[in-house]
Specification:
This protein is mostly helical. The protein has a domain at about 1-35. The chain has 2 helices and no strands. It is rod-shaped and about 95 Å long.
């Protein structure tokens, strides 16, 4: 009977140690992962002008080939 109590005590000790380890790892990892979203890149300006110029150039090439 004393042997069973010793095994149970060892199992509980291991469970508590692992639980503490998991909690510490999570508390350390949360600030690292909470860096925020990257800033959004606006599509206005130069990119929209390039798209419009490409569309106009494509339409001109289609009309010239007809």
């Amino acid at each position: 009977m004393a042997n069973d109590s010793y095994k149970l005590r060892e199992i509980m000790k291991a469970l508590i140690e692992r639980t503490i380890l998991v909690v510490v790892v999570l508390l350390v990892a949360l600030p690292v992962m909470a860096q925020g979203a990257p800033p959004a890149t606006p599509i206005d300006g130069g990119l929209s002008l390039l798209l419009a110029a490409g569309g106009v150039y494509g339409i001109k090439k289609i009309r010239d080939s007809l």
